[in-house]
Each structure stands twice: as structure tokens, then as C-alpha cells.
Amino acid sequence: MIKDPHPSPLPGGEGAYTALLLVTLSLLLMGCPDEGALCSEGQSRCGDTCVDLSSTSSHCGACGVACSSTEVCVEGGCQCRSGATSCGGECVVTASDPAHCGGCAGEGGTACAPDQVCEQGQCKAVCSLATSERCDRSCVDLDTDAFHCGACGNVCADSRSCRGGTCTYDVIAACFNTGQVVGIQAGPDVKGPSVAVGTSPQTVARMQDVLLVLDASMRLRQARLSDYGELPAWNVTGLVPNHLLVREPYVFVLNSTSNTLQVLRRDGEPAGGTGPRFPNGIPLTDVGSVNFGANTNPYGFVLEGSDVYVTLLGNLQTDTSAGGKVVRVSVADPTAPTITNTFQLPTGEALKPFPGRTTAPSPAGIAVHQGRVYAALGNLDTRDFSVGGPGFLARIEPATGAVEPIELGTGCLNPFWLVPVGERLLVSCGGAGVYDRNFNLIDVQGTGLVLLGTDGRVVASLALRCPVGTSCQLPSAGRFSVVGSRAYVGDNNGGRVFVVEVVGDSLVERRGLGPGAEPPILACPRSRGPSLVGDVVAIP
Known about the structure:
five-stranded antiparallel sheet, 1% helix
């Protein structure tokens, strides 16, 4: 095998795709789940239902094998879920269990008297906290207690958390190739069961108690937030919908091939009572749009106040001049979004092209951080879509229009996504694929994460690589989200989610391929071919 002297920008495997290159090609070439299959990838049939035996607590490891309400299914086996402790072989919640209050009875905990309740690990006469609700002899917070979520005895299934009295996952991964969404509980980093939604989900967002799923089939689908069961409501999007954001009562959709920002509005109020707020889905109506022009290929956007900042990737096959920009759109009136500014990104010699290369700025992800706008700036040679130079960010001063390039170095090729982490900024680097003469992917160079410190300069980097002397599905860092100080990073090639923690000015790999790390979360397994984690989204 030989290395291509001009490597492609991202891995592709069969059907060579790229998540940063022309998004229209990437979404069309990656493929969909096989038609006619009884159950989707990674699922098994139990009666009339398709289930994920690796992480479904009611069918854990085999059909009909159920974990208790205080257990969760992890890799096909039951274990105590977060917040529960094993006492005499039984998982109990020592924060509120009157039989094991504060710990296992006789082992540091106490069995409360019959006329007492257990509140935050202490036996008391009555529930004393303003947030506490009495459920039998347990004092719990119905807004946050996964064992009494929204009502006494309502246990959140699998590894879901309780947020505002609704059971949901902390993080959701969109599995583009397998047509599924997968939840992850942050902290313990436990994966929930995969659930089929649509055909090729690209990204998701929460609205009320509904999960909006942006699908490559030009549909904005809806599913129950509690179990991802599809709802009948849906809306048509533009061509190659790519990014989705919610700001009540509006939903914003970026359509890459239609070159539009689409605005929908929620029409209708949630139902009262303790049941679902929108049992049949949320009625959404198209109320506005803005067109960026032919060949602009908008890729990512961020909401900041009454403004939306959008990256224009451009059509690298036809008109590169239409891309390489960031535009500001006023959504002060969401029914009439208006382009107010265009920022031209660095190009030419400013991008320090490699010898013999001609580069074009190809922006993807975008974020607002400490009053400035940052765009991940791919550096591609439009002659063959190969990497033309080191990775950059473009830093924009919105008030003055000044644009400054920030070099990320040759260890970061194809910067892709970026998210603030406190006072710092984290960037993923998609990398450059290397192929043999038969177009088999043999390496991915320059993929990983880069951390910018409080001064806006690079302070740490982390390469994603298969361990030395071993083989594995080659990683390529893609979209990610942050919960606390942990980043949940989607894999463009191997269907995994890596967990990297920001500790001061350093990056620590908690779930990944590096030494000392636990294995990555296999969110989107696929029996053959690449598996793209389209997005990883934190659920508020």
C-alpha cells in the first residue's frame, strides 16, 4: 500500500465521503440503512418490537431479561444505575431509601424508624426542603429525581436523566448511516438503546417534550422525548438540511443545497395535565426564510441575541467565490430574516498553503465566544479537495468587521466544529484521509481536538489515533457538544463518541483510544462500511 501524496480531506471508506467537504456530496454518498430489514442495524426482534439488547433495560442481553427499576443495562448486563448503590446484592437509592438511608444499613447507613422519612441520606420526621415531595417514606425532588420524575414512582427508563420533571438523555447522537438516534447519560457516560427515527438523521434539538430530528430525506421529523417513538407531525425542509436550532417558539433550519435559512413557528399550546404536552407532535408552520445565493452552501450557524451568524462553505466543484464567508442575519423579526453583514474570510497566502498547493477557505462550524465570532476554517485545494494547508480559525470582531486568522498547526487539519468550554474554546479537527492505490483508507492524519486558552491562542491538543501496534476503525473527529467540562465528540468514520474533559489548559481523554482511557462509546455500530455520527447534541 502507498500513501496518496495529496490525501483527501476526510475518511470515506466505501463511497468516500467527507463531512467538511461539499455537504451535498457527503450526505448523498454515505448511504442509508438496508431496505426491507426486519430491524435496523444493532437491533434484534423481541416479539413484535425491535430492541437494542445491549442497552435496553427491559430486554437486557436477551429478550425478556429485565433489569430492576434501580438498574440499567450496560453492554447486555444489568448493573446499578447512577444514584443507586448495591446493598446486599440489591441496588438501592441511599439518598431516599428509608431502609438504607445514607448508605447500606449496618455499613454506614441507617434503617429509619417506621415514622420517619429519608431525605438526602438523613432520617427525618418530615420532608424539610422546599424542593422535596414526599413519595411514601422518601423525600425527593420531582424535577430532578430519575426514580420519581414528575410524579412519585415514575422511574426514567434505561439511563435517562430527569430534567424539569421529564425523562430525557443528557446527550443525543444522530446516527446518519443506521437511521437511529441514541441517548447518552453524561457523567457515567452510559449509552441508552438505539431507536430508529427517519432514514438518515443529521442532527436533533429539543422543543418542549418533543425531539425534533432533522433528516436528510428533507423532513423535520418529531419523536417523543421520553422514548423517541415517532410522532405523526413532520415538516418539509429544503435540500440537504444540515443544522437545526430552537428558540421558542421558533425553529431555525439551515438547508445547505437550497442555500436557505428556514424559519418555522410553533402554533398551538401544550396540553395541560400530567400527560404529554404534545401527544401528536408540535404543529410547526413556515413563517420566513432567507436565501444566501447560488453555490453558497451554508453549513453551520449560531444564534446570538437577535442575530444569526452563518458559515458559507461554498461549492468547491463550481464557484468557490460564493463561499469562504460568514454572514450575519437579523432575526429581530423571525418572519422576515434579513442579511445585514458579510465577512470575507482569509484566503490565499494568509492561509499559508503547503508548497504547490492552491487553497480556498472552507468554513464549517461557528461559535460566539466572549463577544467575538469564531469560524472553523478548512484549508482545501479545490483542484482535488485535498488539504492545502494547516488548520485555521477565523476570528471576527462583529462591531468593526475585522477578521483575524488563528493558526491551529499541521496537527489540526480540516478544523470542523467548535464549542466554548467556560473561558476556553474547543475545536475538533476532521483530519486528512490517506488512501492506497485501490482507494482503501489506510490513515487519517491531523484529526483530534485543539483547545484555545483565555487569550484566544492554542494551549493544548489531543490527537485521535489507533493505539500503536494495533488496528481499529480509523477515527475522524466531527461535531460535538459540551456538558460541564466534558466534550462528547462524534466520529465521522467509526460510529463512536469520544469523551474528552477540559481540565484547566489541558485535555484529558476519558473515553477514547489513548492510554488510560476507557473505550469510546459505540453509539452507531455498523456491520460494514463507515458510520457517521451526524451530530452529538446536549439536551437542555
